Amino acid sequence: MAYLSQYQYYDNNGGSPQEANWGSYQYVSLTDIVNNFLLMYSGNHSLINNEERYKVLFHAKRAIQELNYDAFKEVKVLELSVVDSLRFVLPHDYVNWVRISMYKDGLLRPLTENIQTLSSNAYLQDQQGNILFDQNGNILQPQYSDIDFDRIRKTKKSIYLNSGNQFDNQYGWNYDGMWYFDYRIGDAFGLNTETANFNPTFNIDKKAGVINFDSSMAGELCILEYISDGMEGGDNSLITVNKLFEQYVYAAIKYEILNAKFGVQEYIIARARKDRRALLSNAKIRISNIHPGRLLMNLRGMDKIIK
Amino acid sequence: MINEVRNAVLSILNKNNYGYISPSDFNLYAKNAQMEIYEEYYSSYNKTINAENQRGSGTDYADIESPLAETLESFLVTNSLTKSTDNKFFVPSLVTTGDESYYLLKLLCYPIMLTSGIQSGTEVTNNLVCTTGNFTTYGIISGDIVVNTTTKATSTVVSVTSNTQILLSSNIFPTGAPTNNGFAIFKASSLTEADKVSMGKITMLNSSNLTAPSNEYPSYVYQGSVLELYPSTISTQGQVQAVYFRFPKVPKWTYISLVDGSPSFDQSQTDYQDFELPTEDEYKLVTKILEYCGMSIRESEVTQFGMAQQQHEQPTFSMQQ
């Protein structure tokens, strides 16, 4: 891809959207990656020869996907409100979550993943417990299981210390400046810190493609931070790689092709593998941005006296 | 060169009173001899590459690959392919491109079509006029490709004059009253190479989630006399160009008959065609034609002479490796 003029970069040549090219210099496109690889690493006098372009494209995309899973640290953020169904449909390009938060009163509150289940399928049964089928032999299912229904009706209790907790709003007594309650949270064995969280909780149903929340999340705003695979919905023209990883992607393609090719000597494959690994390490160090300014901010906390 | 070759052949044949070959026989042998040598270029080129990889070739005057590559490249042509149906285009042939393809080097596509329509309004020289056009809104810029889909002629955009008129680099639409020729305009910067895929792989490739043919990475399969392009949206005349090695033209030694009946060389005739091989291969042509002549006049000595000359003068790469 040709270099952009400054006018093109800042104002998209007067076109819309104005911000189309902002920050684009950090990235190299998939088209350039494939083109450069075929030009520089493939040919009559190269280790790689007579390989179809679609193989190069495949390995380039796979390398980019792998980088997106962890090394890039490119986290996408989506805000949606959670309605009475207490579900948040996962984004179309969702692969894994990083953090789920509730945005309320100007504060971002990180939510805890519920260690218990919040949702279930159910089969219809008769009074003898026999499963009921339709005329095609398929099991009959209700729209909601009881656990789902209770959660949506806000009658399901939570083991977490939020508004769904069975002891929420219970009375207590103050005696000699100390509070006493009828229930035994943290009484004999101390507080269970795993569930000691006031905020709503969630479970992710990966196959169903939804996040299920407990009832205290109804009507609240949810902020989902997640990672994708960088495939941009299949639009090849939008797929890019951070330049810090460019050399790694070439090395990854080279290794994958040599590794899958018949008759390539093991020492050549081993060299390609080492090359790939070293370049990945270098790129990860570079993108982690460890520099004195950041370290200084952390080290300033060293002298703080913990009371 | 063809007359020199013929003279040499006749001279060798006559030297020992082996006989005479007619112009029509000579032309037949010339065609075959040229084709044999032409095909040898490809296998020789492959051998030079292998020799290079084994440090068997150097640079400068020791470079054995470049002269061969230059000879091959003299047969390299680029032509727009004629559409057959849907996403199918005819392979280069005498009918569609004026020459036949020996080896298809690559296929170039303009996958992005900016607009298309029917030419209308009074046509001005070097212009495309379409009274219902809206040319300023399609992002057409200088250099984009304009195709007359009726005549298959191609030109490039110089500038967009107005919503209904584009100035072109050449005249591809008949001037004057509208002839209702079709046109299509392709984005020049979208030019990309289509990947050749075997018929055995194309079904899987089309259903692949990561590598299915796309505007950025199109593919094609060779099927009989047509090339089938993917994605199937590549289906407009002018959208596909082939870069290929064409067959050498059939040589023809033309003549006028003199009064005594012996033919005299005449290169002014319309069907005259010289050899297309480089001058350094003249001796190969002579020896190969001699081989054929020896077979024809049943003189094994002539055939053996031709073969011996070839072995003597023609370096073989198998000896070098």
Q: What would the principal axes of the Cα set say about the shape of chain A?
A: extended
Mean pLDDT of chain A: 89
Span of the ends, CA to CA of chain A: 58 Å
Main pleated sheet of chain A: 4 strands, antiparallel
Note poorly predicted spans of chain A: none
Q: Mean pLDDT of chain B, as a whole number?
A: 86
Separation of the first and last Cα atoms of chain B: 33 Å
Main β-sheet, spatial strand arrangement of chain B: 1-13-3-10-11-12-2
Taking pLDDT < 50 over at least 5 consecutive residues as the criterion, the unreliable ranges of chain B are 317-321
Number of strands of chain B: 15
Strand content of chain B: 15-25%
What is the gyration radius of chain A calculated from CA atoms? Answer: 27 Å
The largest sheet of chain A has its strands arranged as 2-11-4-5
What's the tally of helices of chain B?
Answer: 7
Structural class of chain B: alpha+beta
Roughly how much helix do the residues of chain A carry, as a percent range? 25-40%
Q: What's the story with the biggest beta sheet of chain B?
A: 7 strands, mixed
Task: Tell me the number of helical segments of chain A per DSSP (H or I, 4 or more residues long).
Answer: 7
Which outline of chain B best applies? globular
Q: What proportion of the residues of chain B is helical, as a percent range?
A: 25-40%
Radius of gyration of chain B: 26 Å
